[in-house]
Write a structure and sequence with these properties.
The complex is a heterodimer of chains A (about 180) and B (about 575).
Chain A: H1 5-11, E1 14-23, H2 28-38, E2 45-52, E3 57-66, H3 68-79, E4 84-89, H4 90-93, E5 97-107, H5 111-123, E6 126-131, E7 134-141, H6 143-153, E8 158-163, E9 167-169
Antiparallel strand pairs in A: 1-3, 1-4, 2-3, 5-7, 5-8, 5-9, 6-7
Helix pairs in contact in A: 5-6
Chain B: E1 5-7, H1 8-18, E2 23-26, H2 33-41, E3 47-50, H3 54-68, E4 72-76, H4 80-84, H5 86-94, E5 99-105, H6 121-125, E6 131-134, H7 138-153, E7 159-165, H8 166-170, E8 172-174, H9 194-205, E9 210-214, H10 216-221, H11 223-236, E10 240-242, E11 257-260, H12 267-275, E12 278-282, H13 288-291, E13 302-307, E14 321-324, H14 327-340, H15 347-361, H16 377-388, E15 393-397, H17 401-409, E16 418-419, H18 430-440, E17 445-451, H19 462-467, E18 473-478, H20 483-492, H21 508-515, E19 518-522, H22 525-537, E20 542-547, H23 579-583
The chains are: A alpha+beta (about 180), B alpha/beta (about 575).
Chain lengths: ~180, ~575
């Protein structure tokens, strides 16, 4: 088969971050997740919380991946769910700001304990719990920063990780 | 009436009345007794039709909806009542049929306790409804019911379920009327983008080998859409084909009509689709039964796609000019723009295109060898058409060979006259759907073109037909096989007919009599006309056992995984199917 740049472009799988504004009602998250599982789309990360208590709206941030056609379908399928107000593909408009919070538990003593503290300092991770042989660090940042921190903690006694998943927002003065 | 206090059950009936509901198809049970009590007390302002199985209620509501354009309403109990209706809801979702399903639920306090006849109805039906609700507060009930009708009918229509716990049906609450149902988030777009419509008019004006490809969206948009479609197709002089769901939107007797396209579509329609240079898709969704092999689908065409559902755009096939909007609104604008522009397709090119189409037509793809000994199923439908076409007739079908023969040989001239399960392919659809059609059109001739296998799936609804004096005609093409299964086994599985023979069939004439209906049988071609005339003249429900050739296959056929210009015809004999094609459905 000859190389067709148009087809090659269409086949490239990219990661996109989508912001979905929904009515905060029972079952709305199940609808979104059911749509992804029912139609065979990927979910790499999903976060949800109410963002407007008066309007009862929640914002769901989904990190997903697919070809351009699949991403277009995901957006259209989300948009036609009845409780969905808006769907914005943040990755298309501009490179969005993405942040994640992680709680990371490291157990150890002596030099390893000191090294963990030094690295925490350079990552601006905070110690939120401490015992004589453990720390819990709180770290906020991009998923890649958190991944890097976790890898550095692994040889220093990493025993537990809890991550929130990605919250994202566009840069500049525009709102969702 | 706003602000009036009433029980949840009273609110349900009041809301249905205010929505203009004339008929409910339902089946009572423990968790809906308060609503049934209210139905008893309201003395037939809303007619209730008692079915024999909840699937029948859902299909009857679909038949009612498709033949009237109004939403069908279903009322069933919790647990098994709801799960039995799931097939009908899925069918309505796939074919975009407006429907409101009310289900009873165990009392709020018992939800989650595995109570008697409890099922997670909103969980089970989330993926087979357009939207669903569980109403836990009686003061939300009226708003949710009105919203349910709004969601079911606006945009791309579909089924909406409202689950109502029994304590909510008893509780006192405030009623609010249907006025000002402004949904917070669901506001489908009906007007198309004018810039896109202008681009479409330009593309149509420059076409050399154009084709209209229309679907169920034209029917759903209402009778005006069909009128506008006819006007535009005639103004352009272009050929037109349609999906299974779109039959009747354009009259089958018109010279510009090429017949249905797709897996069992006309030779001329599929070839025209493959060779066209401009495709004008109106309210159709590029279903796999229509497109065949995607990478060989109309390879040299520019495509215009009019659809009210943005998720239908570029789902299976990339299009060049998408226009999101309601068919009638878009066609109205498109016709206006078209008339205001000078560009017209050049006549010699169009004449050449029609010459090519005439050559395809001359292939006479639906030809079959008729017989004096055996009734050929195609012949049976041709005779049924000839003897009923001048009447006020509505056709429903089950699913399989008979359905495809009905689509090929019954010639539909008007919209809303053809009720068939297209997307889901639900055997057992046609008989209960016919009930719903007959309820809506009491004086019409309603015929379910059936197969002996499909019709047994919902046969019990004959009892409903007898109870309500609904003179539906069940015209069974009885070949003693699940014919389409047998055909695929013949073509793809070496003639190993695994479990596709209809063993131990009932005597349909006696069965009809057992139900209190009329049984008629035809076994020879020379009996057929008289038997059909008798069926028409009987003013009671009829089971017509039409014994047809057991081995007839349905052609033309695009084998799975093949392109439109690679069809099998009856006189070409069986062709090998690729391994990749075999794996497809």
């Amino acid at each position: 088969m000859s190389y067709d740049p148009v087809i090659a472009q269409a086949e490239i799988i990219r990661t996109h971050t989508m912001a979905v504004l929904v009515d905060n009602e029972a079952g709305v998250l199940a609808r979104v997740i059911g749509l992804f599982s029912g139609r065979g789309y990927n979910i790499e990360s999903l976060t949800v919380a109410e963002v407007d208590a008066q309007e009862h709206t929640s914002r769901i941030t989904i990190v997903t991946s697919g070809t351009a056609q699949v991403i277009e379908q995901i957006k259209a399928q989300l948009d036609r769910l009845v409780p969905v107000h808006r769907v914005v593909d943040l990755t298309v408009e501009t490179e969005p700001l993405e942040r994640e919070l992680a709680l990371i538990k490291v157990k150890g003593a002596g030099d390893k304990r000191m090294e963990a503290l030094r690295i925490a300092d350079s990552f601006r991770a905070r110690v939120v719990d401490t015992t004589l042989n453990s720390f819990v660090f709180e770290l906020t940042g991009s998923p890649s920063k958190i991944n890097a921190y976790i890898e550095l903690m692994r040889p220093l006694g990493l025993i537990d990780v809890s991550r929130t998943g990605v919250a994202a927002i566009s840069r500049g003065p525009e709102a969702l | 009436m706003n602000g009036e206090k009433m029980t949840g059950a009273e609110i349900v009936l009041k809301a249905l009345q205010d929505q203009g509901v004339e008929v409910i198809f339902g089946y009572p049970g423990g968790a809906v007794l308060p609503i049934y009590d209210e139905i008893f007390r309201q003395e037939n302002r809303i007619k209730h039709v008692l079915v024999r199985h909840e699937q029948g209620a859902a299909h009857a509501a679909e038949g009612y909806a498709r033949s009237t354009g109004k939403p069908g309403v279903v009322l069933v109990t919790s647990g098994p009542g709801a799960t039995n209706a799931v097939t009908g809801m899925t069918d309505a979702l796939m074919d975009s049929i407006p429907m409101v399903v009310l289900t009873g639920q165990v009392p709020t306090k018992l939800i989650g306790s595995d109570a008697f006849q409890e099922a997670d109805t909103v969980g089970i039906t989330r993926s087979c409804t357009k939207h669903n609700y569980l109403v836990k507060d009686v003061n939300n009930l009226a708003r949710v019911l009105h919203e349910a009708f709004y969601v079911a009918t606006k945009g791309r229509p579909g089924p909406v379920l409202v689950d109502i716990p029994k304590d909510v049906q008893f509780a006192l609450g405030t009623y609010t009327g249907p006025a000002n149902v402004a949904h917070r988030s669901y506001k489908p777009r009906v007007k198309g983008d004018l810039e896109r419509i202008k681009e479409a008019a330009d593309l149509i004006g420059a076409a050399k080998k154009p084709l209209f490809y229309t679907g169920g969206g034209v029917i759903n948009s209402g009778p005006v859409a069909s009128q506008l479609l006819r006007e535009f197709v005639r103004a352009t002089g272009f050929p037109i084909t349609s999906t299974l769901m779109g039959l009747g939107a354009y009259p089958a007797d018109d010279p510009q009509w090429l017949g249905m396209l797709g897996m069992h579509g006309a030779w001329e329609a599929n070839h025209a689709m493959h060779d066209c240079d401009v495709m004008i898709c109106v309210g159709a969704r590029f279903d796999d039964r229509v497109t065949g092999r995607l990478d060989a689908f109309a390879p040299n065409s520019k495509k215009i796609h009019i659809d009210i559902d943005p998720s239908s755009i570029n789902k299976n096939v990339r299009v060049d000019i998408p226009i999101i909007g309601d068919v009638a609104h878009v066609l109205e604008d498109l016709i206006r723009v078209w008339k205001s522009r000078a560009a017209r397709p050049d006549k010699p090119a169009l004449a050449k295109w029609w010459e090519q189409i005439a050559a395809w037509r001359a292939r006479n793809c639906f030809a079959y060898n008729n017989s004096k000994e055996l009734i050929k199923p195609q012949h049976a439908i041709e005779r049924l058409y000839a003897l009923t076409k001048d009447r006020d007739v509505y056709i429903t079908t089950e699913v399989g060979q008979h359905q495809m023969w009905a689509a090929q040989f019954y010639r539909f001239q008007a919209p809303n006259r053809w009720m068939t399960s297209g997307g889901l392919g639900t055997m057992g659809y046609g008989l209960p759907a016919a009930l719903g059609v007959q309820i809506a059109h009491p004086d019409a001739l309603v015929i379910d073109i059936a197969g002996e296998a499909s019709v047994q799936m919902t046969m019990q609804e004959m009892s409903t037909a007898v109870q309500y004096d609904l003179p539906i005609k069940i015209f069974i093409l009885n070949n003693e096989y699940m014919g389409m299964v047998r055909q695929w086994q013949e073509l793809l599985h070496g003639g190993r007919y695994s479990h596709s023979y209809s063993e131990s069939l009932p005597d349909f004439v006696k069965l009809a009599e057992a139900y209190g209906a009329v049984g008629i049988r035809a076994t020879k071609p020379d009996e057929l006309d008289d038997a059909i005339k008798e069926m028409i003249s009987v003013k009671r429900p009829v089971l017509f056992d039409c014994r047809v050739d057991k081995t007839e296959n349905c052609f033309p056929m695009i084998p799975s995984g093949e392109a439109h210009n690679n069809m099998i015809l009856a006189d070409l004999g069986a062709q090998t199917v690729s391994a990749a094609g075999k794996a497809l459905v």
